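Forwarding these from the shared drive since the link keeps breaking.
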Amino acid sequence: MKNFIKALLGLVLFAGILYACSENSDEKETIKLKSDMTPSPVIDNATIGYMNNGTYVPISQALLVGYWKYKLNLPADTNFTNIHVIGGTSETGQLSYTVSGRSENGTVSVTSVLKPVGEPANAMYMMAGGTCSCETTACSWSGCDAQASGSSCYCTSCSGDCKKTSTVETNFARAFAYLKSIGVGK
């Protein structure tokens, strides 16, 4: 009987954790990925950049990470893994593109909104305004993930604390020129 009660309590605890992770009171419009979307949800070989006087200027992953650290006041030793471009549709049917990454230790998730340069099939995207980070010490592998749509920022729910930081950039050329001038991304 004791084993049955322990198993039942374990099941109830597990169900409670799953329920807590499915709730998100801060969410307004989420990005839902479609597996049948063209291009696919994770876009391979994408180039990210910004516009400078009508010219597309590609950036390196190191410069992107430097930008995230600079704009979101992240610690200098924050390293990101699995940075990727995602294409999807919002609940209203709008096409949406973002670049996302998670820190190596799993405590920081960052997403920046992208806009295709030309046709999305050419896999060239420019930074388009909103950047969102979600930081946690309690949800290291799931939850507290950053999602951005336009200038809105959301964090997926988490069973622990989840700190949201968001920013909207209006002049990427100036921001990236500054970062390059101080040696970021080299």
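-- next protein --
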Amino acid sequence: MKERVKSMALSVLVLGSLVQSYFLIYRLPGSGTILSSETSYVQTDNMGQEESIEDLIFPDRMIIHMGEDKHTVFYPGTTFYDLILSRLEGRTFESYQRRSIQSSDWNAIRKENKGIELSFSGGVPVTLLERLMRITPDPVFRAETINRIWIYVDKQASQAHALFFSTRGDVVYEATQADLTIEDVEQHVAFGTSTTPYELTDGAYYIPYEGVEAEQPVILSGLFTTEQMQRNLFFDPGITRNIQEKDGSEIYTDSKRSLQVRQEQRWMSYTDPAAPSSEESDAVRDLLAGVEFVNQHGGWDGSYRLAMQSSLDYGTQVLFQQYYKSYPVMDKPSFRFGTIQLEMQQETASVYERSLLYLKGGEHSSTKVMLPGGEKLKQQLAKQTEGRAITDISPAYLPKLKDQGIELVPVWRVKLESGGEFTVGASSAPPSNGG
């Protein structure tokens, strides 16, 4: 009898030990495991805030067409931009009809009809737009990437049209069922009547009839250290070795991954070569994995927007553009700052580039300047383009490193059809009104 009790007790102890070992290794269902593969993302130092994809997708501008060839432009973070966008996000769009881009005279529609045009430069996949707006899934439309949403009132037909323009440039989709009335659109358009008017030029870009006042702040900044980035990007920083390059940059590697730090530019480039795969990468899944990678490896120092997503032979290239208040911060060869760049392959980051500088928040100082408009701006554009065609002009910040932080200098960013670009600077703002 005693031997049987001892045997039963021993069996219970062994079983308990096995159960305990199981939970120690695999934990509870849904809580993850202690074991991790070489490609899984490991939570590291909390260096910046985390964001969701919904925080990183928004129009780079909102163009208001008021009829009779009158227009204005709202930028992110302004009162009317936020108000109109929040209302449109609550509307429902469904039942899509595909049309050729040549089916209408869009410049004539812009000039003659009241409407709202949302620009998503770089394009956004419809499957991600569905997270922001009430877009009913459609098998054909869902495979598209959209760079413009245009809602306008047709005076002759007395109805509102909702159009989604494909980045391919040859097709547009109309939501034949949208809970938008003519009164809704006209109410939104009315917000533009008391703001700076813009002129549609060459059917491609908009110029304000008068100067636009802007802030030129100096933002307090910090600097990620090389040690921080090593801890963020290597599973065992202790086994990395350092290589000095002739150009002054440093490379840290664990024989597979490498981290290149350019101290003069305060810029880092991380690579994690992945084996070629016969499977085609899913662009949306790559993008979502890229957002999660940044969340866990440096975070976001302020507001960023998805500015570009393109397919590569082996994966997906993604670019996030930093914003300060209403304007994007330019990344220039002379001062690398303002972007986070990724190359994703099968949802794994193979390339990760960003500045080591980051905005702490809070302004050391700020002055008001005036971006030129009207004839003054036209003259400067004509002088610098020398006959080359302009495709876009928009306000942006040019970063400059100061002892107190990073100065953000407002400029007009001018893009050319040839692919080049240049900037037009501001002047001191008059002490009277706000322009």
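Residues 53-195 form one domain. The helical segments are 2-26, 79-89, 106-112, 126-129, 182-190, 226-233, 283-296, 374-385.

- D.
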